[in-house]
């Protein structure tokens, strides 16, 4: 019996069943072993893994199976032996036929080989040709793919050599996207593909180099571009001005034109001249002067390369740098108009180029960028012009600068740039222009005054009279009735001053042209500048003239007459301005000329100078006084210095009297001046004589000196009563010496009792004598009497009289002091 757990095979327990079962089991094993398809490992493992002695029984069964198979083979061989023998016999018979057949086949093969050798050679040739044909077809096919690539590459090289970089980039793009991918397996295409980025970089560098050359070129040509643009703007403005003049002429003919001091032309002469000038010169633009193709080319190249933003930033940065360079003026620009012109030309050229770039390209520069550049430039330009114009002291240069600024502004305004700030700047420049004009005309007025002889203008005949009247609005019926030769009341400076004021108005008008201002504004400008000329420049020149030491009394009187005529001429100046501007003087906001006050002030100054010079002359005579204050008795006649002074005054006032007084106004004026001067001289003389008596350095005065002084005052009173200047009523002129007269009478009569008794009464005989004045003079006389008494000791009765008089003086002195103290306490 076997244990069923030790093997996968169930073995029957009885001997018969055991033998029968082993046979089935080993039959399966042998069947598996005999099968060539199954693996033997599992089968053999089942045999050897069985119970002990299983191997032996397996070997026994295997031997039995072998013997069984041998028996079966033997049976089969025995069964087929006779057939095998028969077959061998037949095969031996066939052997001879086979050898014969083999010989025939060999012979046939040999003959066939010999016959096919030529066919083989031809076949091989055909095969080779077919291979070549196939290779050629393949080659042609591949070349047809490569030829367009090579042609495009060749085209690329030609484009690069001819500097058609934009087309070259397009060709590169086609090569990369269309042609090279078709034949990318070839080495040369790979080399091409590797070369294209390098070529792109070269194109970028070359185009950038061209752009730099372009920027350098426009920097050099900005002057020429600006000059051309400004010339065209000026021609356009001249043409429009000429047309406007013709329209104005067809409507009305004013006395003077705004742009010229001569009458306006007619019949289209100006317009024709302007047309001819424009036709003579072909109109040039920025494109005619500068080749912009580098910018377009570079822009397209960078756009194609996808780097447009880099190009835009570079271009704008470089243009900003160039703008700063253009806006930097030369240090001596203010010296000549050419310096300003070159400065403006460069700026105009710069912005003309930018305007062209703005409109010719899309987005390379924007309106915001150009506006930013212009605002920056405008601030710099205004600062530069404000600084450099302040250095100009030549009105002609300032005027040319103004014209340049106007053309500059008009030119850029035509390109769309705002220029209002430039016209505002022109008002500042106008003030500077007026200042330079005022300085220039100050020299003109000074020369006129220095060359004037300050005497009435002599006219010998009608022609000379008309020559003067044509230059100055003088009309006097009485003078016109007089026979030649005759004299006009004013001096030569009057018509010259009047003519120069008109010249100043013309010069001031020149600046107002082309400022795009209304006639009312121009009229206001002219009147204001003329007022400055009259009130500041001419007034200052007159004041300086009046103060000059070489100007005598006669000249001063003539100056007064001149200013009167100039004052009357102011209304003609207003009419002159009105005729120029065509603005009615009745307009509400029309400025009036201040010439009346200017000439009145000059007259008053001249009159004051007359009085001052007279007083100075009187002081000079007074300084010659040499009184002997201790004299015992007077000389019985007036002092020599005083007589000389009176003679001088008489001759001086005779000059006043003999001034031309054909005109009632002149006569009234000269009479008034003479009366005022005479009264002023008498008052000053009286004051000087009083100061001489009361001089603190004069300690004592004798009665003889008082008598001598009284004689001199009497001569002054005689002069006053002789009416040296007609027109005084009664003893008006003598009242100038009333203080001296009452003071001297008090001492000459020695009427102290009356003085003291009537003091303070309106009817007092000595009403004009001040107690302090009387006290001061009395003390000096007292000291003089004491000194005289000491010298005269001969007669005792004289000494007694002196003592009595001395006591009286002391008593009067006490009373006068009490009056003086009372006055001081009351005050």
Protein model, in words:
- Keywords: Coiled coil, Exocytosis, Transport.
- Component of the exocyst complex involved in the docking of exocytic vesicles with fusion sites on the plasma membrane.
- Pfam families: EXOC6_Sec15_N, Sec15_C.
- The model is unreliable at 1-12, 248-281 and 794-798 (pLDDT under 50).
- The termini are far apart.
- This protein is mostly helical and 827 residues long.
- A two-stranded antiparallel sheet has the order 1-2.
- The longest helix has 108 residues, at 54-161.
- It has 27 helices and 2 strands.
- Among the domains are: 292-417, Up-down Bundle (5 helical Cullin repeat like), CATH 1.20.1310; 433-609, Tetracycline Repressor, domain 2 (Orthogonal Bundle); 624-824, Up-down Bundle (Methane Monooxygenase Hydroxylase, Chain G, domain 1).
Descriptive labels:
disordered N terminus, EXOC6/Sec15_C, 5 helical Cullin repeat like, two-stranded antiparallel ribbon, coiled coil, Tetracycline Repressor, domain 2, mainly alpha, 827 residues, rod-shaped, transport, Methane Monooxygenase Hydroxylase, Chain G, domain 1
What's the structural blueprint in terms of helices and strands?
Elements: H1 15-34, H2 41-48, H3 54-161, H4 165-179, H5 187-251, H6 269-280, H7 286-289, H8 293-304, H9 308-326, H10 337-360, H11 367-389, H12 395-414, H13 420-451, E1 457-459, H14 462-471, H15 477-481, E2 486-488, H16 493-512, H17 519-547, H18 553-568, H19 570-581, H20 595-623, H21 640-657, H22 664-693, H23 703-721, H24 738-749, H25 752-758, H26 771-791, H27 796-826
Antiparallel strand pairs: 1-2
Helix pairs in contact: 3-4, 4-5, 4-8, 5-6, 5-8, 5-10, 5-12, 8-9, 10-12, 11-13, 12-13, 13-16, 13-17, 16-17, 16-18, 17-19, 17-20, 18-20, 20-21, 20-22, 21-22, 21-23, 23-24, 26-27
Domain Exocyst complex component EXOC6/Sec15 N-terminal: 61-230
GO cellular component, one term: plasma membrane
Family: Belongs to the SEC15 family.
């Amino acid at each position: 019996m076997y244990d069923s757990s030790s093997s996968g095979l169930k073995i029957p327990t009885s001997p018969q069943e055991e033998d029968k079962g082993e046979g089935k089991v080993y039959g399966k094993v042998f069947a598996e072993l005999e099968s060539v398809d199954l693996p033997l490992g599992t089968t053999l493992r089942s045999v050897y893994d069985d119970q002990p002695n299983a191997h032996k029984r397996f070997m026994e069964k295997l031997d039995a199976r072998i013997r069984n198979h041998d028996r079966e083979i033997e049976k089969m061989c025995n069964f087929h032996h006779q057939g095998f023998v028969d077959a061998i016999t037949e095969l031996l018979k066939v052997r001879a036929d086979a050898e014969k057949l083999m010989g025939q086949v060999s012979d046939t093969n040999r003959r066939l080989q010999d016959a096919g050798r030529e066919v083989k050679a031809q076949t091989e040739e055909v095969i080779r040709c077919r291979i070549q044909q196939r290779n050629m077809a393949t080659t042609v096919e591949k070349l047809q793919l490569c030829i367009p690539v090579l042609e495009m590459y060749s085209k690329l090289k030609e484009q690069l050599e001819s500097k058609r970089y934009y087309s070259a980039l397009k060709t590169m793009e086609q090569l990369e996207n269309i042609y090279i991918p078709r034949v990318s397996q070839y080495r040369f295409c790979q080399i091409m593909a590797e070369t294209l980025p390098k070529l792109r970089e070269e194109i970028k560098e070359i185009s950038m180099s061209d752009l730099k050359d372009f920027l350098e070129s426009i920097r050099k040509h900005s002057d020429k571009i600006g000059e051309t643009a400004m010339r065209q703007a000026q021609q356009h403005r001249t043409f429009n001005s000429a047309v406007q003049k013709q329209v104005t002429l067809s409507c009305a003919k004013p006395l003077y034109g705004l742009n010229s001091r001569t009458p306006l032309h007619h019949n289209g002469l100006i317009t024709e001249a302007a047309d001819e000038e424009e036709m003579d010169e072909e109109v040039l633009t920025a494109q005619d002067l500068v080749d912009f193709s580098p910018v377009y080319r570079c822009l397209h190249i960078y756009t194609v390369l996808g780097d447009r933003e880099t190009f835009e930033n570079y271009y704008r940065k470089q243009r900003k740098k160039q703008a700063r360079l253009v806006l930097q003026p030369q240090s001596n620009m203010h010296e000549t108009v050419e310096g300003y012109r070159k400065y403006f030309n460069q700026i105009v050229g710069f912005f003309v180029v930018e305007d062209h770039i703005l409109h010719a390209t899309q987005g390379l520069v924007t309106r915001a960028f150009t506006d930013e550049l212009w605002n920056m430039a405008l601030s710099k330009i205004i600062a530069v012009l404000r600084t450099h114009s302040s250095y100009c002291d030549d009105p002609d240069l300032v005027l040319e600068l103004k014209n340049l600024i106007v053309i500059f502004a008009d030119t850029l305004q035509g390109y769309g740039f705002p220029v209002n700030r430039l016209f505002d700047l022109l008002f500042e420049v106008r003030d500077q222009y007026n200042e330079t004009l005022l300085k220039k005309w100050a020299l003109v007025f000074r020369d006129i005054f220095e060359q004037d002889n300050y005497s009435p203008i002599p006219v010998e005949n009608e022609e000379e009279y008309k020559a003067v009247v044509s230059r100055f609005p003088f009309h006097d019926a009485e003078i016109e009735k007089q026979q030649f030769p005759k004299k006009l009341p004013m001096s030569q400076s009057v018509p010259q001053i009047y003519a120069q004021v008109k010249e100043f108005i013309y010069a001031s008008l020149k600046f107002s042209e082309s400022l795009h201002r209304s006639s009312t504004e121009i009229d206001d400008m002219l009147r204001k500048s003329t007022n400055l000329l009259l009130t500041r420049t001419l007034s200052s020149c007159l004041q300086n003239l009046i103060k000059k030491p070489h100007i005598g009394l006669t000249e001063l009187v003539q100056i007064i007459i001149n200013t009167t005529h100039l004052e009357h001429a102011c209304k003609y100046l207003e009419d002159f301005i009105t005729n120029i501007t065509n603005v009615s003087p009745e307009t509400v906001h029309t400025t009036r000329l201040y010439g009346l006050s200017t000439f009145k002030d000059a007259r008053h100054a001249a009159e004051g100078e007359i009085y001052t010079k007279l007083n100075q002359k009187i002081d000079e005579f007074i300084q010659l006084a040499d009184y002997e204050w201790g004299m015992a008795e007077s000389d019985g006649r007036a002092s020599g210095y005083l007589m000389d002074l009176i003679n001088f005054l008489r001759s001086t006032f005779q000059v006043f009297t003999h001034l031309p007084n054909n005109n009632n106004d002149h006569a009234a004026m000269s009479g008034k001046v003479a009366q005022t001067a005479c009264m002023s001289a008498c008052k000053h003389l009286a004051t000087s004589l009083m100061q001489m008596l009361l001089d603190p350095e004069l300690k004592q005065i004798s009665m003889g000196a008082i008598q001598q002084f009284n004689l001199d005052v009497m001569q002054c009173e005689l002069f006053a009563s002789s009416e040296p200047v007609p027109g005084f009523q009664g003893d008006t002129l003598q009242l100038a010496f009333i203080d001296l007269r009452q003071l001297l009478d008090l001492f000459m009569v020695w009427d102290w009792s009356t003085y003291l008794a009537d003091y303070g009464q309106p009817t007092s005989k000595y009403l004009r004598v001040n107690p302090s004045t009387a006290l001061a003079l009395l003390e000096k006389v007292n000291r003089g009497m004491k000194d005289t008494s000491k010298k005269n000791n001969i007669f005792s009765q004289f000494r007694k009289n002196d003592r009595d008089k001395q006591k009286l003086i002391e008593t009067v002195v006490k009373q006068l002091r009490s009056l003086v103290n009372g006055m001081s306490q009351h005050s």
